[in-house]
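Students often ask what a holo structure prediction actually looks like on paper. The answer is less mysterious than it sounds. You provide the chain, you provide the ligand, and the output is a string of discrete structure tokens encoding the 3D arrangement of the protein together with NAP.
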Amino acid sequence: MAPLRVVIPRVGGPDVLRVEPFEPAPPGPGEVAVEVHAAGVNFADLFCRLGLYAAAPPRPFVPGFEVAGEVVAMGPGVAAPRAGERVIGVTRFGGCATRVTLPAAWTRPLPDGWSFAEGAAFPVAFLTAWYGLVHQGRLARGETAVIHSAAGGVGSAACQLARHAGARTIGTVGSEGKRAAALAAGADEVVVSPRYAVWPEVDRLTGGRGVDLILDAVGGRGLAEGFRRLRPMGRLVVYGFADLMPQGGIRNWPALAWRRWRTPRFDPLEMTGTNRAVIGFNLVYLFDRAEPLAAGFDALLAQARAGALRPVVGARVPFERAADAHRLLQSRASTGKVVLVREPGPRATIAP
Ligand SMILES: NC(=O)c1ccc[n+]([C@@H]2O[C@H](COP(=O)([O-])OP(=O)(O)OC[C@H]3O[C@@H](n4cnc5c(N)ncnc54)[C@H](OP(=O)(O)O)[C@@H]3O)[C@@H](O)[C@H]2O)c1
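The corresponding structure tokens follow.
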């Protein structure tokens, strides 16, 4: 059977996604071809579909940043991984397909005992959480961190990493049904609020002493409220803007402009005078800078192999129903990672 790919042909709701067979090209120099058994779905895929992701390639294109599967062919110059090895891999777009060609350097062995779905759920969530909390945020033992959307893909990874760092974690979630997932991921306390009115409760939990780090991919006015709660040397780490997701999933420029306009601006004088920092990042723009991400990937996998970290797969959706995966992630109801999976079937191979 020909491999399948999920294509974004035009801007729109989940129904615009096209799942189609395609003829894969053999891997080029330094690349491997992977028969993909599972691919992670990310919030960025939704923004791509809505035409709101600046880094996206021109349409039509295949979204997707992470896969797990078996190597079926090696391009010229590739010594490892070898055909037949089970790997997880990072792609810069193109990952939502059952056959993917990617740089060998961006693959790692699938940890023993992990399902392909767990493998596909690992790279983006853990690399993002690690980059924000550890590499940029320098979260230290005894510090207090607020992690927004703590039951989600990145959030559940961040709760695990924060616990591992010996920090106290206050997770926030948008609905009561997610409380248990955030606690299971490692949050010490959870604050529930659909509109991110979390700060009075955080004040109560901290006795008004403030927090050392905030990991925020929601954006909006809550950024300013959080900044005010930072202790001296505190860090507000901003890495996404879920708040910009259009209501009902339909792009609406006036509503977007309004939300963009109300996004707080931070004053360097105030930051200097209060010893508080605002840090922003988007890993999609760091793909070509192998370090430090490659080192982070290795360190995270070492922790995972030692049993300290494990991705949380919240939903497995067949590739053919990619639109349902988008609906679920956009619904705000998902916990853990949403992963596309394939039904088991004969493995196609291409000659090296
Ligand atoms: N900068 C980077 O390099 C990078 C990399 C990966 C991900 N991200 C960002 O990290 C965030 C989490 O990504 P993820 O893939 O792990 O998703 P996720 O957290 O599993 O799911 C998204 C969550 O965002 C929250 N949310 C807030 N407003 C929302 C809205 N209007 N519509 C839908 N959800 C809304 C919801 O959680 P609650 O209601 O519980 O808060 C929802 O469950 C996203 O903002 C994404 O863009 C950034």
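The chain has two domains: 4-122+311-341, 127-283.
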